[in-house]
Write a structure and sequence with these properties.
Order of helices and strands: EHEEHEHHEEEHHEEHEEEEEHEEH
Shape: globular
Largest sheet: 8 strands, mixed
CATH architecture: Alpha-Beta Complex
Distance between the termini: 19 Å
Helix content: 25-40%
Number of helices: 9
Number of strands: 16
Radius of gyration: 19 Å
CATH topology: Spore Coat Polysaccharide Biosynthesis Protein SpsA, Chain A
CATH class: Alpha Beta
Structural class: alpha/beta
Number of domains: 1
Length: about 260
């Protein structure tokens, strides 16, 4: 099963870190956020990734092209240019790096990947800036149990995020940033049928707006309620928080 990861945004609220690299390449514990997310999936049996590139996508390509060298010891003979690598620290992942446009919105990036996903029964889809201790196999089993086009993992953090209204497990409403601080929010970690991509109209379409609103209105979206750890990395404060958790040796999302 493929895992789509959005990795093309500007990361403007982390401008201290993202002036020269995309947000998924901001490091937590000397490893890019993207590495953490991919390990989270791979540890639970999902190791084929489609990374949707945009802003400074070349830095992500360079990282994976040089992954083996970066993560192993090297001996270099400067006279001959011969390089010997020592060790075999390379995970058995298949990684597709796909340019989805510099200014494309989140929904548009997914829409541009339609041909990569058309033959799949379903696929996983997430953002390149969030981690959680979500049980992905339980999430997948939940998705397959209800027969709808979309499942969103929902969590309960601060008030600045958009809200999700439930009727049982069915997502009844999807709406952005209300005044109160109660309720569930979009935590990412989606499971989607390829037909869900048809709800995205154009490159300019944010996934979090019209597509999710329409999926909910047409009773085609269910919510998997996650009660454990979840955090995004939108701000320097959130990055520092994740760094502290990683340094403690008890990062909740480290399931590998």
């Amino acid at each position: 099963m493929k895992v789509v990861i959005l990795a093309g945004g500007l990361g403007t609220r982390l401008s201290e870190e993202t002036a020269n690299k995309p947000k998924p390449m901001v490091e937590i514990g000397a490893k890019p956020m993207l590495w953490h997310i991919m390990n989270l999936y791979a540890a639970q049996g999902f190791s084929e990734f489609i990374v949707a590139l945009g802003y400074r996508g070349e830095s992500i390509k360079e990282y994976f092209l040089n992954y083996y060298a970066i993560n192993n010891d090297l001996s270099i003979d400067l006279a001959t240019g011969q390089t010997t690598m020592h060790g075999s620290k390379a995970p058995p992942w298949k990684v597709h790096l796909v340019d989805t446009g510099h200014a494309t919105q989140t929904g548009g990036r997914l829409r541009r990947l339609r041909d990569w996903l058309k033959d799949d029964d379903c696929f996983m889809f997430t953002y390149g800036d969030g981690v959680a201790d979500v049980d992905l196999n339980k999430l997948l089993a939940f998705h397959r149990s209800h027969g709808k086009l979309a499942t969103v993992t929902t969590v309960k953090p601060p008030a600045r995020f958009g809200r999700i209204g439930f009727e049982g497990d069915r997502v009844q409403e999807f709406y952005e940033k209300p005044e109160d601080s109660e309720g569930w929010i979009n935590g990412g970690f989606f499971v989607l049928q390829p037909q869900a991509i048809d709800f995205i109209d154009a490159d300019e379409t944010p996934w979090e707006r019209d597509p999710l609103v329409r999926l909910a209105a047409e009773q085609q979206m269910m919510g998997y309620k996650h009660y454990g750890f979840w955090s995004c990395m939108d701000t320097l404060r959130e990055k520092t928080y994740l760094e502290e958790l990683w340094a403690s040796g008890q990062a909740p999302w480290k399931v590998w």
